[in-house]
Amino acid sequence: MAHTILLVQPAANPETRTYSDYESVNECMEGVCKIYEEHLKRRNPNTPTITYDISQLFDFVDQLADLSCLVYQKSTNTYAPYNKDWIKEKIYILLRQAAGHTE
């Protein structure tokens, strides 16, 4: 359980930057999924049930101007930065586990 800060910049304009903090990396990855789900709801307000696959989620992540995480490292009492590719890898692992396909 490492405190994790999610940094999001949806558009090129720096004023679109926001951050959220989470108690763990997994909670943060769930937060990224929720951001995408909210995006889908805004784009499809009259659709009662929205489904998507992981490639659509990853395309959304890729089109964000910036997305990164800062994960607390207890051993050094610092935060380590991670990029979009790391985030996508962690989301993939989380969703596989959620689907019951653990290795």
TrEMBL record:
Domain of life: Eukaryota
Keywords: Cell cycle
Coiled coil: none
Similarity-based family: Belongs to the E(R) family.
Function of the molecule: May have a role in the cell cycle.
Protein name: Enhancer of rudimentary homolog
Organism: Ignelater luminosus (Cucubano)
